[in-house]
């Protein structure tokens, strides 16, 4: 079976064009992105990087100045397949890192319900006061790279991903502005786009993987768990739906909370549940997201997160995030958090 067009890997001049395309945020101008991707597919061997980019920038400028909305049929391209194509192109250039989840910086966020309890007995040792500041900065770095491809299908990949998410008490000068919590999540996963199109989908995707998540601490502040997960992704009419169930790998109980070996948080599933549902909608240069988790128990606990990414100026994008529930971070897995923040987006999901 011939590999689909979006999985073809460029060489020579096309690889150079890909580097030019991916050296700047692709979400800065959707019309420019679309033109560049089509140019990578259709460019003549004699085409130069400068010529292709100049032509596409001129085309995008004319479309923007005309003030005309993009026709519905021009919005029907698959967001998932376009991202896969961009990632295939990025893999050809050593100087380009491939985003995994969102990469962002939220310099100001307000946490209405900060969880000071884990630090009360250790405040002096950790330079964190008994009562945490409600204002803090958060940021996330998330990258991945391909280990192997075409293992079972023409378009599949075995990948390694890594995500680090930090909560920084940057405005807490009395405590020397410490990092309150950082969660590290390496994962190994197999991913493949599917030809199956249920419910009239524009694209579908599946992922199977193993993930370890930890806050890198010891003693009573240590938190970690290991999971095997599946992720089923479906796209229709610019909406992307993701259902990610998981199974936690059991660990031996601890005789003493200070033991290095054993389960740091045996009741984490009571708060985090066994699945996560996410939906995204992309409309021109705006992306809207919703994440839901629930433990499906009588003592109902879960979480909701709302995301909005939007253009600010030139290649700078804004990011607004609202979270309410359990498990925003591992140190807060059993404490309810309500947070709102606004910042800057480095890479979007689609």
Q: How would you describe what is shown here?
A:
The protein has 350 residues and is of the alpha+beta class. It folds into two domains: 5-90, no CATH class; 98-347, Outer membrane phospholipase (ompla), Chain C, CATH 2.40.230.10. Helices cover 18% and strands 40% of the residues. The chain has six helices and 13 strands. It has helices at residues 13-22, 30-42, 49-66, 79-90, 123-126, 268-272, and strands at 98-99, 103-111, 135-149, 157-168, 179-194, 203-214, 224-236, 239-248, 275-283, 286-294, 302-313, 316-325, 337-347. A twelve-stranded antiparallel beta barrel has the order 2-3-4-5-6-7-8-9-10-11-12-13. Strand 7 (224-236) and strand 8 form a beta hairpin. Helix 1 runs antiparallel to helix 2 (30-42) and helix 2 runs antiparallel to helix 3. It starts with 12 loop residues before the first helix and ends with a strand. Mean pLDDT is 83; it is low at 1-13, 20-28 and 68-76.
Could you give a quick summary of the protein structure above?
With about 350 residues, this protein is an alpha+beta fold. The chain folds into two domains: about 90 residues, no CATH class; about 250 residues, Beta Barrel (Outer membrane phospholipase (ompla), Chain C), CATH 2.40.230.10. It has six helices and 13 strands.
């Amino acid at each position: 079976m011939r590999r689909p067009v979006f999985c073809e890997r460029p060489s020579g001049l096309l690889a150079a064009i890909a580097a030019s395309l991916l050296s700047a945020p692709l979400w800065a101008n959707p019309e420019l992105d679309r033109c560049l991707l089509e140019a990578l597919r259709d460019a003549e061997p004699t085409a130069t990087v400068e010529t292709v980019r100049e032509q596409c920038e001129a085309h995008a400028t004319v479309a923007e100045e005309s003030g005309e909305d993009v026709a519905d049929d021009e919005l029907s391209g698959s967001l998932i397949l376009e991202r896969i194509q961009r990632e295939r192109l990025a893999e050809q250039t050593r100087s380009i890192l491939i985003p995994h989840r969102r990469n962002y910086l939220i310099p100001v966020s307000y946490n209405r319900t900060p969880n000071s309890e884990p630090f009360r007995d250790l405040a002096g040792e950790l330079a964190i006061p008994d009562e945490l500041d409600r204002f803090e900065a958060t940021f996330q770095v998330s990258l991945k790279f391909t280990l192997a491809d075409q293992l079972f299908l023409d378009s599949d990949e075995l990948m390694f991903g890594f995500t680090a998410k930090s909560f920084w008490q940057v405005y807490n000068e009395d405590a020397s502005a410490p990092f309150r919590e950082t969660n590290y999540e390496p994962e190994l996963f197999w991913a493949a786009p599917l030809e199956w199109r249920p419910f009239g989908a524009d694209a579908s995707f599946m992922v199977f993987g193993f993930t370890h998540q930890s806050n890198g601490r010891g003693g009573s502040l240590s938190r970690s768990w290991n999971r095997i997960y599946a992720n089923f992704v479906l796209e229709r009419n610019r909406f992307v739906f993701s259902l990610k169930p998981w199974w936690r790998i059991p660990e031996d109980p601890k005789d003493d909370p200070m033991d290095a070996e054993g389960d740091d948080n045996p009741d984490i599933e009571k708060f985090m549940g066994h699945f996560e549902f996410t939906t995204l909608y992309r409309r021109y240069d705006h992306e809207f997201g919703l994440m839901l988790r629930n433990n499906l128990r009588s003592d109902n606990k879960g979480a909701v997160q709302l995301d909005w990414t939007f253009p600010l100026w030139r290649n700078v994008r804004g990011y607004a995030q609202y979270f309410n529930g359990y498990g925003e971070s591992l140190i807060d897995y059993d404490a309810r958090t309500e947070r709102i923040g606004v910042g800057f987006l480095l890479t979007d999901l689609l």
